[in-house]
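Q: Entry one of two.
A:
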Amino acid sequence: MKVLLLASLFPIIILGCGARAQNNMNNKPVRYVALGDSYTICEGATKTESWPWILTNHLTDKGITTELVANPSRTGWTSQQLIDRELPVFDESNADFVTLCIGVNDWVQGVDAKSFHDNLIYILDHVQNKLNDKSKLLLLTIPDFSCSIVGPEYSGGRDISKGIAEFNSIILEESKKRNLKTVDLFEVSKEMKNDLSLVAKDGLHPSAKEYAIWEGIIFPVAMEVLNK
């Protein structure tokens, strides 16, 4: 009787596994584009040490198959350069999910808060209008580079923390208006001040270790966004 019972269940188990495999085959990878500047291209680390790369693999390992289709970010680029040079890449990507971290170079180069705000609105409007799901845009605040070794050299005599905080308030204001998720890199970046292993060899950018810490706080929010 037991043998017959097991035999009768066996085809059901096989069918169940086949159905699961078919479902996996039908799932398309999330097409991910990372927009930003040095903090997204991850100056001071290798490609595989960059947080967008780690995030892509982490999401895939946790069941959300993800493909990093583009990371057009460049060190030194402002919000205007993102508009001019990165948005065209995004437009061609057919992205499902986007992260955005921009603004530090605007502040360093003396772009006023209103101009940055106007550019940010343009970027957010453009990206959301292209995405099939407008909620699949994750914003990151600007890190506090005053906490790096040579960061103060780029202050132009201004208060870095205060200036970056002002720009971050603009990012947070826009994310709230649009009901978008935000990850705060400003506070976690302050750890670089007391731990030199978190600073890259150039004394300015985060090290691979710090980028990995960032990914650790970005990942759960990205999961939340993608599971909506």
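Q: Entry two of two.
A:
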Amino acid sequence: MNPFRRTPPRSGPAVEQLTRRLAECPEEFLLEPRLAGSTDGHIEVAAVVADLLVALGSPEPEAKLSPQAVKVWTGTSPGDRNLLSLTLVAAWLCHDRTLRELGGLGPAVRRWLLEGLPPLAAVVAPELFVSDGDRREELARALLDALGLLPAGETQAQSADRLRALSSVERARVIEATRAQQQRARELREQMASERARQAAARYSSE
């Protein structure tokens, strides 16, 4: 179940419209984000997000970012760069004309940026959501799902199946689970081999 959805899905833009927008992401949104307290970097992510929320119809007082959100979108260490860079790409995506015309999406977009992007940023390089076709589709579908919007021309089942098939987070989870199983299997084989060697040594000693 989508943790961001509160109402049954309504019709949204076609996935192709959003993936095309991602493919056309300006170079400025791919520049190095500026970290808190640093003079390096080119873009202040928190300012971009605040402008986005206003563009989506949030009144300026509503669009004002909480201290917690500002902390997330300013970053404190080099390890935050992936999330900040992905947030910039996602902000460009969310500025889609159809989404702006739907209105009232500011709170859901803010929630998605804060809660939905970190798992993706942990497993996929941000630039791939612009350069790779599958990752563009994944980000577009993840956004629509988080906003409770059904891609134009698709049923809810079709949309959910395709998002599951594309999920980088789920793929990473499966890979990690497989590695853990393989590690446990190796440890078990080693334990069994050690036990056989111990038993053989005990038999040899008794003889």
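A: Comment on entry two: Residues 60 and 86 are 24 Å apart (CA to CA). Residues 170-207 form one domain.
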